[in-house]
Amino acid sequence: MIKYKEALDIVIKNTKQLGFEKVFLKDALGRILAEDIVADRDNPPADNSGMDGFAVRYEDIKGATEENPAVLEIVGEAKAGGNPPVIKKGQASYIFTGGLIPEGADTVIQKELTKVEDNKVFIFQELPKGANIRPQGGDFKKGDILIKKRKKIRSAEIGVISSVNKPTVYVYQKPRVAILTTGDEILDLAEPITSDAQIRTSNTYALYAQILETGAEPIIIGFAKDDPEDLKRKLSYAKSCDILLTTGGVSVGEYDLVKDFVCTELGVNILFWKVAQKPGKPVAFGIWGQEKEKLFFGIPGNPVACMFVYETLVKPAIKKMMGYENYYNPVITAKLKGGYKRKKADRQEFIRVAIEYKNNEFIAKPFGKQGSNILTGMVNANGFGVVNIGVNEIKEGEEIKVILFDTSFLDTKDIEI
Ligand SMILES: Nc1nc2c(c(=O)[nH]1)N[C@H]1C(S)=C(S)[C@@H](COP(=O)(O)OP(=O)(O)OC[C@H]3O[C@@H](n4cnc5c(N)ncnc54)[C@H](O)[C@@H]3O)O[C@H]1N2
Ligand code: MOO
User: Fold this and answer.
1) Helix or strand run (H / E) with residue 353
2) What's the 280 CA to ligand 2 centre distance in angstroms?
């Protein structure tokens, strides 16, 4: 059996980036840029003021003090968006933050250091030449690359792209990810339960949400019974998608038909089946489509195994497909709280932990029940702690690597800032 890291390498090596499309900037949040963003002009476009006050000539305020202020004639105003006056010797202009520096002026004195009487301004302090002036091109120059392609578009990127006047932007396409739920016992939401043998699906909707969170497009293509005809028919619905995810039916049971049928019905070329990991051992992975550009993941039915396989194998692949520069999950080192013991150590185990930050270190708190079927253990978890092959025990306080799959609820209230 291959190890998790080898499996991930195979997945990544066989994942191709999709093409790009044009979207409205306001719809681009969370997408990945497929073009460099280039400055259309200098920013600021011209020298302007960083303060409300007076634009002056440095020569005129040189040596000004409380006792011996410079006294200048006010000849106009330079407001943001307005046309500034021209300043000559002995003159000053009102200026407001963002206002263009008047011709002749080279320094701005903030209002607090001045007093106005009649049409004259008294300046009580000398400031260095150029004070409070934001120079043309101080942020960036026309033609500068402001954001490189393959960056995720967040609010800051939306702001910068907007500032260079691009109402539309090229982004990589979103993968269309088909979900086929399999198993005679599985019921969709709202289907009536008539026997204890029936199980309400969790995988279908957990996967749907995980795909949405990644920024791709989930499509539920159906629920298939453990029946060859039903399975074949529903597999055919996956043809227009970029990735097919099936859940259930990939182990060694008589009714575990998925692997065989994806090969015969869709032409999937299976690249691995079974990974020395817990949860998610029987996961299968393959490529298909005309140019082997599509991916297949046969995900085990156990609900934790299903979510885990998505986070650790499917998510990096989707991120690569949708253009991400860095598609790997973040990994941190944390101190394990309470310790962890296991009898068999033949698989690399990924235990559900909640990460918190205390006394300048990350603490990983494992969830009590670690079975692949205990989905509630995922509810408070944001990381998978890695217990390596051959390791039967990690003691309280020992270090453990943790794959973070959600950074939205790191408990950081004890960090002093
Ligand atoms: N003889 C062996 N049996 C099993 C092995 C093995 O190596 N030898 N591996 C075990 C491991 S590990 C896993 S993981 C499971 C995976 O099996 P399958 O992918 O074939 O999944 P199923 O048998 O269809 O289902 C497993 C379990 O999960 C429940 N399930 C399935 N789909 C859903 C769903 N959509 N929502 C919620 N729960 C679901 C299902 O009812 C089963 O209880 O195989 C072991 N067996
Ligand atoms: O690999 Mo399975 O997920 O241990 O139950």
Assistant:
1) strand 348-358
2) 5
Rounded to an integer, what distance in angstroms lies between the CA atom of residue 198 and that of residue 201? 9
Which CATH number is correct for 48-134, 3.40.50.300, 3.40.50.2000, 3.20.20.100, 2.170.190.11? Answer: 2.170.190.11
Residue 246 in contact with ligand 1 by CB distance below 6 A: no
Topology (CATH level 3) of domain 4-18+174-321: Molybdenum Cofactor Biosythetic Enzyme; Chain A (3.40.980)
Full pLDDT tens readout for the chain, 417 residues: 999 999 999 999 999 999 999 999 999 999 999 999 999 999 999 999 999 999 999 999 999 999 999 999 999 999 989 999 999 999 999 999 999 999 999 999 999 999 999 999 999 999 999 999 999 999 999 999 999 999 999 999 999 999 999 999 999 999 999 999 999 999 999 999 999 999 999 999 999 999 999 999 999 999 999 899 999 999 999 999 999 999 998 887 777 789 999 999 999 999 999 999 999 999 999 999 999 999 999 999 999 999 999 999 999 999 999 999 999 999 999 999 999 999 999 999 999 999 988 888 899 999 888 889 999 989 989 999 999 999 999 999 999 999 999 877 777 777 778
Residue 179 in tokens = 């979900």
Distance in angstroms (rounded) separating the CA atoms of residues 182 and 244 = 13
Does the beta carbon of 299 lie inside 6 Å of ligand 1?
no
Q: What is the ipTM of this complex?
A: 0.97
Strand partners, 240: none
Phi, psi for residue 76 in degrees, rounded to 5: 165, -165
Regarding the domain with residue range 20-38+147-172, which homologous superfamily does it belong to in the CATH classification?
A: Molybdopterin biosynthesis moea protein, domain 2 (3.90.105.10)
Compute the C-alpha angle 64/67/70, nearest 5°.
35
* Longest CA–CA separation in the chain, Å: 99
- CA 210 to ligand 2 center in whole angstroms: 19
Residues with CB under 6 A from ligand 2: 278-281, 300, 302, 305, 372
Choose one of 1, 182, 302 to mutate for the ligand 1 pocket test, by most ligand atoms within 8 angstroms of C-beta: 302
Tokens of residue 88, six digits:
């000559």
Ligand 1 atom nearest to CA at 306: 14
